[in-house]
TrEMBL record, chain A:
Xref: Gene3D superfamilies: PCu(A)C copper chaperone
Protein name: Copper metallochaperone, bacterial analog of Cox17 protein
InterPro entries: LpqE-like (IPR007410), Lxx211020-like (IPR058248), PCuAC_sf (IPR036182)
PANTHER family found in the cross-reference section: BLR7088 PROTEIN, COPPER CHAPERONE PCU(A)C
Keywords associated with the record: Signal
Biased composition, class Gly residues, residue ranges: 176-194
Cited Pfam families: PCuAC (PF04314)
Keyword flag Signal: yes
Taxonomy of the source species: Bacteria, Bacillati, Actinomycetota, Actinomycetes, Micrococcales
From TrEMBL, chain B:
Source organism superkingdom: Bacteria
Family: Belongs to the DyP-type peroxidase family.
Listed name of the protein: Putative Dyp-type peroxidase, associated with bacterial analog of Cox17 protein
Domain Dyp-type peroxidase N-terminal, first and last residues per copy: 135-275
Entry-linked InterPro entries: Dimeric_a/b-barrel, Dyp_perox_C, Dyp_perox_N, Dyp_peroxidase, TAT_signal
The keyword Oxidoreductase appears for this protein: yes
GO cellular component: cytosol
Positions of the UniProt region annotated as Disordered: 1-82
Cofactor(s) needed for function: heme b
Low complexity composition-biased segments: 7-18, 50-72
GO molecular function list: heme binding; metal ion binding; peroxidase activity
PROSITE patterns: DYP_PEROXIDASE, TAT
Domain called Dyp-type peroxidase C-terminal: residue spans: 288-469
């Protein structure tokens, strides 16, 4: 955030001052989405959701995660039920849970993601994310990958994620012995996806 | 003075609805209203010129106060305080006496508070646009801290690798310079103090070749010079990053973030860190002194002037709007410089040490009189002096200009090294033509320049600086696309 502000933008911001302040869920939020929703011909709710700062972790094969911030611009909750990508044979929505021992693992979010009315839903390494599985080819740093979110009402939200190397948040997936989340997902049990 | 189109200013996409709708902005309305209040409250106190400048800059008022913007009077850009200080002076000598005793800062705090004035806008909040006709970090006034990084592409890198690398680099640079974390930035908070961050990208010949584009003849190591004592580990490279900001954490974070994202494509070749005058330490536009104590860079073309455009930017071809960077690491032997008396130092340079004025003048920017003779009948500005040689006064091919944008370095010396300093200059020159501007000048200095006695070039590199890019493009797209 900077204080320097161009005329048009500042004027617009001044107009926004009285608007409610939205909660921030992602620290690195604020970028220009390379793939904001356009929703195509899907009707009124088509632009209900936008995807800000989408990116995917580079992977040679198998699987990887897609991250970003989902923003709901409507006054109703938006229910994301699935995802698809030409780069992957299968996509799942994943959540991370913490078990009784305090260890966290990830699993398929059976009920999808609910982006609250007027709010945001962060997809982050080590937390909720979109899982691309059965990658059709390597996702190299600097590539772009097309992903489409599927909403409960049948709307689709396509976006483009930038592929980057990422070495963080390994603790959530590391350790062959605890790989419960991965194993549970049906034999994808490599920890290399993230 | 420095009417720089790259002056610290607003983010690139003011009309971008995503920005307008960005809750981070909405969450931060105070900044905007503060600025507006400060401005309107301040104007009545301002001198007419300051008020006019504030009005003309009304769209971007904080910038004029926050940035190294070359204003004649920095106080004029701090609304409120100026009026207070003038008022204090009018109130009589007692106030000024108190000021002298208490220290300017204490008084400023004391008298500043009741006036309703606020602290000046933070330098750390200043941004410089990444996108544009030219890359930032060239016409931009130098920020205090700079890190220069040279990388080598991995063996076997092909065009696709180069393009993907530059896409990531561009996205990172655009975000970081706007004061935002890069995508997948694990320390995004460190990016939130842009402090005039600029990230300038240059290409070595191997990168252009890997991208399957023609390597211009000038994009090659400089010819060997007799004075050179080059260390290969301080020379050349395929990709150059000049990362500069007014805040060292900002630079460190940006460099680290960029290198993390470049790790898939390239290996670090060398890193050089340098410093310039700190923000607020001298009036904007003041020529830097190097560690010899010399005023260094007096004859630079000034940003925004026709001479700048003509000197720096490549006029046509794929590199149009770009430039060339020559980076020379020049060790300065402060120990032997110590042994030279002041008149000797001034004769070596051709300028006075105190003012930077030519030995025939009284002010820094006085035009030197190379015909003038000293009392002993020799040229007042000696034939061997650095300035005279650089200008090429006595050569048939003189008169070249370049943009000097140097940074000092002062490295730690290892225990037992027998020295007390390892200092010098990261001499950075930008020019439209390496071969027609830089090389002839360097040849003259190689042949004769008394300053060579105390300076030794130990690193050297030439990079092609592609023009700036628009949003949606990657840096260098004009050259490699």
């Amino acid at each position: 955030m900077t204080r320097t502000t161009a005329p048009t933008r500042r004027a617009a911001l001044l107009g926004l001052v009285s608007l409610p302040v939205l909660p921030l869920l992602a620290a690195c939020d604020g970028g220009t989405a390379s793939g904001a929703s356009d929703g195509g011909s899907s009707g009124a709710t088509a632009s209900a959701l936008s995807v800000t700062d989408p990116w995917a972790k580079a992977a040679e094969s198998d699987m990887t995660g897609v991250f970003g911030v989902l923003k709901n611009t409507t006054d109703k909750d938006v229910h994301v039920t699935g995802a698809k990508s030409p780069a992957a044979g299968m996509c799942e929505l994943h959540e991370t849970i913490t078990d009784s021992t305090g260890a966290s693992s990830m699993q398929k979010a059976e009920n999808g993601f609910v982006v609250p009315a007027g709010g945001e839903f962060a997809l982050e390494p080590g937390a909720n994310h979109i899982m691309l599985m059965q990658l059709t080819g390597p996702l190299k740093p600097g590539d772009e990958v097309e992903v489409t979110l599927e909403l409960e009402d049948g709307t689709t939200i396509p976006f483009t994620a930038a592929v980057k190397e990422f070495t963080g948040a390994k603790e959530n997936y590391g350790g062959a012995s605890d790989g419960g989340g991965m194993e549970d997902m049906g034999g994808m049990g490599s920890d290399g996806g993230h | 003075m420095q009417d720089d189109p790259r002056q610290p200013t607003a983010p690139q996409d003011p009309a971008d609805p995503q920005h307008l709708g960005d809750p981070r902005d909405a969450a931060d309305p105070q900044h905007v209203t503060e600025s507006a209040d400060r401005r309107s409250a301040a104007q009545p106190d301002e001198r007419q010129d300051a008020a006019a400048s504030a009005a003309s800059a009304a769209s971007a008022a904080p910038q004029s106060a926050a940035g190294p913007d070359g204003q004649q009077d920095p106080a004029a850009s701090r609304p409120g305080r100026r009026g207070v200080l003038i008022g204090g002076a009018a109130a009589g000598g007692a106030v000024l006496g108190a000021a002298a005793l208490a220290g300017a800062d204490a008084v400023r705090d004391r008298v500043g508070a009741p006036s309703g004035g606020e602290a000046a806008p933070l330098m750390g909040a200043t941004t410089i646009p990444f996108h544009g006709e030219h890359q930032a970090g060239i016409e931009t006034p130098p920020a205090a801290h700079a890190t220069f990084v040279s990388l080598d592409l991995r063996p076997g890198a092909v065009r696709d690798d180069v393009i993907r690398m530059l896409r990531i680099l561009t996205d990172d640079a655009a975000r970081l310079t706007a004061g935002r974390g890069a995508l997948a930035d694990t320390e995004p908070e460190l990016a939130e103090v842009p402090a005039s961050l600029t990230i300038t990208v240059g290409f070595g010949p191997a990168l252009v070749r890997a991208a399957e584009r023609e390597v211009p003849t000038w994009l090659a190591p400089l010819p060997a010079f007799g004075i050179d004592r080059l260390e290969p580990t301080l020379c050349d490279g395929d990709l150059l990053l000049q990362v500069s900001a007014g805040e060292p954490h900002t630079v460190a974070h940006a460099v680290r973030m960029l290198l993390k994202d470049l790790r898939a494509f390239a290996d670090l070749r060398w890193t050089q860190q340098g410093f310039h005058q700190a923000h607020g330490s001298v009036k904007p536009g003041t020529t830097m002194r190097n560690l010899f104590g010399q005023v260094d860079g007096t004859v630079n073309p000034q940003p925004g002037e026709e001479s700048f455009r003509h000197t720096v930017w490549i006029p046509d071809g794929p590199w149009a709007g770009g430039t060339s960077m020559v980076l020379r690491r020049i060790a300065m032997d402060l120990d032997t410089w110590d042994e030279l008396d002041r008149p000797g130092r001034e004769l070596a340079i051709g300028r006075r040490l105190d003012t930077g004025a030519p030995l025939t003048g009284t002010a820094e920017h006085d035009e030197p009189d190379f015909d003038k003779l000293g009392p002993n009948g020799f040229a007042a500005i000696p034939e061997f002096s650095h300035m005279r040689r650089a200008r090429g006064v006595d050569s048939p091919n003189g008169g070249q200009t370049i943009l000097r944008r140097p940074y000092s370095y002062d490295e730690p010396v290892g225990a037992g090294a027998g020295a007390i300093s390892s200092s010098g200059l990261i001499f950075v020159a930008f020019q439209a033509s390496v071969l027609e501007q830089f090389v002839p000048m360097q040849r003259r200095l190689d042949e004769l320049d008394l300053l060579n006695t105390w300076t030794t070039p130990i690193g050297s590199a030439v990079f092609g600086i592609p023009p700036g890019c628009a949003e949606g493009e990657f840096v260098g797209e004009a050259v490699l696309g």
